[in-house]
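Data card: per-record layout.
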Amino acid sequence: MHKHAFDHISMLFASDRPNLNEVPETDGSWKFRLFPLGSIKPSGWLKTQMQKDMDGFVGNLDKLVPELINDPIYGTERLHSKSKTKELGNLKSGDPEGEEHYKWWNSETQSNWWDAYIRNALLLDDKPSIEKAKTYIDRILFTQDKDGYLGIYDKELRYKFTSENGELWSKTTLYRGLLAWYEGTGDRIVLDALLKAVHNVMQNYPLNQSDPFNAGNGLSGGVAHGLTFTDVLDKMHQITGDQRYLDYAVFLYLNFSQNYSSEKDAQLNSILDKDYKLQSHGVHTYEHLRPLTVAAFVSGNEELVKALSIYISSIEKTTTLTGSPIGDEWIDGRNADATQTGYEYCSIHELTDSYSLLLRMTGNCQFAEKIENTFFNGAQGSRNPDHSCIAYLKTDNSFEMMGTKNGEIDPGRKQTRYKYSPVHQDVAVCCVPNAGRISPCFLQSCWLIEDNNILVAVVLCPNILQTTVKNIPLRIEEITNYPYDNRFHFKISGGEDMNIRLKVRKPEWAKTIKTKEKYSLENGFILFNRKFSRNDSLELEFSTDIRVREDLNHEKYFTYGALIYARPIAAREIPGIVYAPGFKDFNYIPMDLTLYGFSSNNNAVFRDGRISVRLINSKTKKKEMVELIPFGKTILRQVSFK
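The structure for this 642-residue chain is written out next.
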């Protein structure tokens, strides 16, 4: 690891703002580079869904829980030694969190929500929402101290902790939103504030001379969340090219591994223990894949590289067939099971984000496959297709949504997480903000840049890329209904005729490629290399068929292309708490819970977006023709068949 002393803050202000619209040259560190936020805009069904979210829970959470979103915890109500635990509106019975844990909660809730709001507003070109976000940005920057401190603690507490705290975590959630604003607008005032704020952290927790993850032997959920400050450091390196941010990220991971943590899955000793099974709070486990990834790639340390490989393999055992990582809310040493293990929406987002980082660093198509599986199946299947709300916890085989996991009773806990809500305040307002962050995160992996200005369509969906190549404007509209259809029309328009090298990922399920273009295959990508006129196009189609696949427990499930198909279970909808007109909780109870078994002679046929298949009725023991629909369009369902 490099050993740079951090120079005076003025050095960081010396260079001009990077050109965020130009396709950047890679520095050789990672396989791919990201486009800045705003270069890739949603279109088609994805834009419609994101707009629905902005009209729904994403755009209105501040009205549904104003006491949480408007808490001035970063300003006039910074935490001090006499601060009281705030009333959050959640049921704490049966949960292990302590008083200090709850004190910083509002910082996560509001900052992750603003992060989602900012990204969605910018990507949708929503002018009123952008103005609202600008007002928020100005208000937050006003709270920054002269020394650069931007956070939730008064001077008597900041950087002086030896127990549970939210110092780095509250900064991470806030700074990620500020970085999104800077990327999307080029606002130099925000970048200058971030440079000062991050420098303040590095000055007060000096590299290799401090102990930021020393939190005693108690609960350390907020401290452990703070390890994702590496997200901020990674992005600061992308913007400035300054290696010191990455060096500091390695330091944070190593310091985290050297200290006791109640969330220890990603600690080096845990990973290298061949008998250790993942057991922590799922969200920590999956978000910590990113700090480990950065530490391994930046340092090149063989032990860290080995640990990363082991950790990825361990996570695969806790991931369901829909790409959803278990933890309801703890993993507890279990492997994924379609019926018995639930997953949290926060975990779905965090694992998707971690796979995006791995895709960028390795260029390995398997991570793009995982991103698509998790987003198109797990994430869509945890949204309510009829109302603006999401499930806090969900299972692949979902037989009821009445608060508990498929009717399971836990006498030690008042469980309410298995329902649909635009808020989930009775548990924690964490999954709803992250449900707003996942689509913008997903979009940033759709197009990446390889060396020598090769544009790479890695994760496929309807979108529009706008950038410049060698100062020439370029727009590529990816017109498709994917993953509900496997045809693509790339509409390419530029400032002039130009030679473009364009790569499109060939999905692993694609049997054949249909196109009139000349192409070559290269490590899972289709390479097109020709001169495109100012207004040109490229058409592409992938053929596939029904695939019968098997999960970790040898249960069968059906896929067609990128989508998993499930048998919907008719349900009675039971409205719950009403938060505002158009915003309420929903529970679901099955009308008829007849389950089905797998038959090898199933005569499966795909037609009009559905799969018709013969399965065995568990009650009559006879074969019946059953219709399966995309997993993401279901509420109650059976997706795996024994």
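Known properties of this structure: The first strand starts at residue 33 and ends at 34. The mean pLDDT is 93.

See the next section for split statistics.
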